[in-house]
Amino acid sequence: MSLSVQKIVDPTLLGEGPHWDDKQQALYFVDINLKSINKYVPATGAHTKTFLEGRVGFIVPVDGTDDQFVVGVERKFLIIQWDGENDSKVKVVKELGEVDQDVPTNRINDGKADPKGRLYAGTMGHEDSLGNFAMEKGSLYRLDRRGIVKMCSGVSISNGLAWDLREKAMYYNDSLEGKIRRYDYDVDTGDISNLKYIFDFKKNNIDGFPDGMTIDTDGNLWVANFDGSCVLKIDPKAGSVLQKIPIPAKQVTSVTFGGTNLDVLFVTTASMNIKEEQKPPCGSTFMVLGLGVKGHPNDKFKLS
Fold this sequence. Notes:
The protein is about 0% helix and about 55% strand. The protein is an all-beta fold.
């Protein structure tokens, strides 16, 4: 199959946090600024959404359920119940905690479950209408049955989590650093250590910023390039770009593998008119076919 980039969901403002639910064969994602959670079913083309009471940074299904999700709303981690239907009422099942209480202008930006079902999610500082950020005000957190643990601080825009169990590695992006981080990762405890930078956008003459990220079964990273109109395939061992996938939107925000065979790359984008107008199809959600690689099943959040 030749490479193909197809629009699957019409433009939104700040699409983010795609999660493929293998059981339901559905893609979940959020629009942070419009405060919506979304569901897309490729088999039918159905796109449904509903709205929460605050900006929502991610949505991850809760293991063992079909209608419960962990979400990051403003600075709170919540378990919610949603039937996946348009404009249906969302029930807050449980509040799991609130972070960055000393910086009330912060918000949660991105989050994923690790291979053991622990939640990793980070925060970012205030962004004004001109796209200026409060620098190094955010942190990365881990949430599990023991509570919330701060993993690192001084983060500007927390983004892009991926794990490689064979390499005992966790990859992470603070977007405004313009670099991709690698940590040693202990799957049993969830602890991370020994920070290294494995890829630098500027040193590789790449415009834009590393945003959301996923990993394929070969251990290569797929990185959304915000302000760069592309997705980059990066070899984290060699620190080199293996492939560049053009996306017809400047603000590429995140990626995940999904589909029946986990060989479809879903891509979210944004259409924020920060410095210039972002015309359609900017803000759309896309799928990329014909890459010839597969991803891992997206992990669900485990309460216990």
